[in-house]
Amino acid sequence: MKDKTSLVILFGGESSEHEVSCVSAASLLEHVDKEKYHINTIGITKEGNWFLTRSPIVNIDSGLWEKDKNNKKAFIVPDKSVGGVMIQEDDKSFSILKADVIFPVLHGRNGEDGTIQGLLQLSGIPFVGSGAAASSASMDKAITKAIINQSSIVDQAKSLVVYKSLCEKDADKELDSIEKFFDCKFPLFVKPANAGSSVGISKVKTSEALPEALEKAFCEDQKVLLEETIIGREIEVAVLGNEYPEASCIGEIFAANEFYDYNAKYENNQSKTAIVKDLTAEKEAEIRSKAVRIYQAMGCEGLARVDFFLQEDGRVVFNELNTLPGFTHISMYPKLWEASGIPYDKLIDRLITLALEKYHG
Questions:
Q1: Catalytic residue check, 95
Q2: 122-134, pLDDT tens digit by residue?
Q3: To which protein family does this belong (predicted)?
């Protein structure tokens, strides 16, 4: 009988998306094939402490896993000779937890921005998803837009990068520069350059509302991206693969709020998603092709979700890319692949296979 693959699910994290990560991990645990994998879960608290936890799925989902008295301190070290995760058994001894592959379902800062990926690369443990460089570049919305612009793949919204240090030095000058750049045209979107799940994003309709929106975004990052508003359908494509990635069918977001912010994604059950079925074969092929080309331009591996706007005249406008999309029960990434013929459990298998192929060649 073939030995089970030792799978470690890494979740939680220090970012503002900690709770989403916990829900993603719980969903993974519900769907992963227990006959194929020996599963361990390592949670990271908001304070940055790592623990091996045996808490039930319901406690991981709710965040109560942190209170489990049987949790053990866990460490991943940048030393390939260790061959796994170090677990502190008591004050004087450590054990090594075998890890054939790690599935990080971490979102936001220190989760999908290349930091964890760099550590895992140094440790020599195979992991699901893109490497450190692609993760870092893809997490930064400004860098992503610059790379995509150089690649001439797809249209993008007009945008401007603003820095917290310059705003603190001369706020009036920066606000004036913003208005001039956008020709005093509103509304604008104000986004932290490095944040996911639409955390810290505001839709600004007047110049008077800009300072508050910038302050909100600067709470998440020192760098903020301002974009013109694009009117169009919000569509998403899931991409899967390493050298030869594939694109899923196309999904659409119907946000309950004015835009698809954190509340609309995770708290307001009036938001809806659907599989797009009204496009011509040519337009669908165009969108899926653009998603794959963007994925390749960013150097992604394993998985990513690529978001677009589809305007009334058929123009496709790039929105953003997410290298570690959510895996909750409402997340579009697994939904899109299920609609494309790959159920959740088989999707997990495929992602793990891709991680092992990337490492072992």
A1: no
A2: 999 999 999 999 9
A3: Belongs to the D-alanine--D-alanine ligase family.
Q: What share of the chain is helix, strand, coil (3-state, %, to 5)?
A: 35, 25, 35
186-201 tens-digit pLDDT: 999 999 998 765 778 9
Taking the CA of residue 10 as centre, how many other CA atoms within 13 Å lie in the half-sphere pointing to its CB? Answer: 29
Annotated catalytic, 215? no
Q: Residues comprising the binding site?
A: 141, 189-191, 197-198, 227-234, 307, 319-320, 322
Selected catalytic residue, list 27, 130, 159, 197: 197
CA distance 41 to 35: 16
| Per-residue confidence (pLDDT) for residue 153, from 0 to 100 | 95
> What is the Cα–Cα distance from 172 to 153, expressed in whole angstroms?
36
Q: Give pTM, 2 decimals.
A: 0.92
Which residues are annotated as part of the binding site for Mg(2+)? Answer: 307, 320, 322
Question: Is it true that the peptide bond before 325 is cis, omega within 30 degrees of 0?
Answer: no
18-31 and 344-360 helices, crossing angle to 10°: 100
Q: Which residues pair with 253 in a beta bridge?
A: 234, 273
Q: Answer yes or no: 21 catalytic.
A: no
Helices (H) and strands (E) in the chain, counts: 12, 17
Write the burial class of residue 88 (CB in 10 Å: 0-12 exposed, 13-18 middle, 19+ buried).
middle
Catalytic: which of 14, 17, 66, 112?
17
* Residue ranges for the chain with pLDDT beneath 50: 264, 266
Distance from C-alpha of 26 to C-alpha of 32, rounded to nearest angstrom: 10
